Amino acid sequence: MSTSGVVLEDFDSHFSNRFYHSYLDNSVNINSSSIAAAAALVARSMYILASDDSVVDLITLNTIKVNVSLVEELIGCLLTCNPGLSCGLVKRFISPSNPCPSHYVGVFLDDPSGTQLPSYADDTSRFVWNFLADRTNSAGNKSSCTGKCGDEGEVCVGAEVEGGGRCVVSTTRYVPAYSTRVKFEDNAWHVLPANSSDPMGAADPVWTESFWNTIGLRVYAVQDPAYDWLILLAGLGITAASYCAVHFGRAYISKVAKLD
């Protein structure tokens, strides 16, 4: 296979969602059929790329389909609080600490401990890891486990559930997001240690909160000073005219009343 990598993007030019940041921006308005169609397109594209220069078997290509009911189940598990991470699919792999899935993504300030059983992984990350490892595993001894597996290339799937998990051969790995606070020393890149005087990492070159709302800017126009003077003079003129109208009106009414 000559393709070294594939990058999947959410959109081509700009993000467009008419429900974005409204009370309608929820799982009810997620089109599961569109997600399934996109997944089928990606799977078939990967099959074509994996075939390299050989002739693509159209019959096999058309048999690549997506389980729509599974997509809908994943939407309910990962995008809602009911059932959320309390759904049966999630509980097959992990013991969630909270039924509401968290979509928070952060950046490490320091070098994490490991990438197979990391302590920093939240409920959503652990479920996705276990789910993908289970779906992409190849044939193995599938012996029971409660943590790490003995054979190289094996990972323990479902280690958190009652009764333990099982060892499967899978290349699924956690990929931590490191800070760009790195230095090149001894022919290797090293993550700079966290600064105790800067616990929030405010001095970090890359500092972002991916789950924040859209950043906006509100601008207030300032009128020219001459316009303010014009408004003041107009107000004084209207006040003077009103006073004169009242004064002369009262005098006229008094005069008419005397004539009667």
From TrEMBL:
Cellular component GO terms held in the UniProt record: membrane
A UniProt-annotated Pfam family: Nicastrin
GO biological process: protein processing
Name used for this protein in its record: Nicastrin
InterPro entries cross-referenced by the UniProt entry: Nicastrin (IPR008710)
Top-level taxon of origin: Eukaryota
PANTHER family the UniProt entry points to: NICASTRIN
